[in-house]
């Protein structure tokens, strides 16, 4: 199973267009050792030719240009992207759907809650219907019901509900339902390898235990280092937890949580531009390394091979 990180940043990207925080200023001016990052998306494949896109980022066209495997030339009009899975209805995960409007029917897997958001508060599907046919495949999370994507042989996906938050424009923003935000267990039928992808992992819950304990790899919410990160910078009045993101540091944070699971390779993804872990020389980054936790970067290819070799 191959997992290609297309975009490892949270909404806004890194550096963010209007931000002069230490990280954004530093990466622009070369005073902080950090890599720019595009917005949140991965692609997954078993054979390296046919890919499932997880989330369609506003940076999708640049991500496709940067990863030629997503653009094979088998026909006049062709793509390596066989289908799109959406984990929520946030701007950073859905705006790129507009960039896939040309021509062929577009198969999309998402929950009923996300579909509702994408036909009301963030009506991407309504707009797209004027350009192409969106073929919606509803995801069932209660109980989690596995699905496959036609054209992508050998991979099986299981959508798992996460305690997080529907987006600000959602009709159910303050009325949480299972399916507002999901994690996905990705399993390779041939190798038996399992990866749990959950960039919107807002809080631990008992039903998530097997996905953390039994996976070979986990790609989890890396948005914020501290719960009050944006409050201290004076750019928000809300904590990380209040907007559905589990911070890394502190009691009950991601570092403490992941220490309970020896098995998986641990990778943080969907990192906000304010997060000190983006600075490769920071003490926070060193603390992650001490706990065996990696930080995703754009272009990272994770190859969970049958022999157990991870690259
Ligand atoms: C989030 O997941 O909270 C988002 O990245 C917010 C956004 O897209 O602005
Ligand atoms: Mn996001
Ligand atoms: Zn910034």
TrEMBL record:
<dbReference type="InterPro" id="IPR036866">
    <property type="entry name" value="RibonucZ/Hydroxyglut_hydro"/>
</dbReference>
<dbReference type="InterPro" id="IPR001279">
    <property type="entry name" value="Metallo-B-lactamas"/>
</dbReference>
<keyword id="KW-0813">Transport</keyword>
<dbReference type="InterPro" id="IPR011842">
    <property type="entry name" value="PQQ_synth_PqqB"/>
</dbReference>
<comment type="function">
    <text>May be involved in the transport of PQQ or its precursor to the periplasm.</text>
</comment>
<comment type="pathway">
    <text>Cofactor biosynthesis; pyrroloquinoline quinone biosynthesis.</text>
</comment>
<dbReference type="Pfam" id="PF12706">
    <property type="entry name" value="Lactamase_B_2"/>
</dbReference>
<protein>
    <recommendedName>
        <fullName>Coenzyme PQQ synthesis protein B</fullName>
    </recommendedName>
</protein>
<keyword id="KW-0884">PQQ biosynthesis</keyword>
<comment type="similarity">
    <text>Belongs to the PqqB family.</text>
</comment>
<feature type="domain" description="Metallo-beta-lactamase">
    <location>
        <begin position="51"/>
        <end position="271"/>
    </location>
</feature>
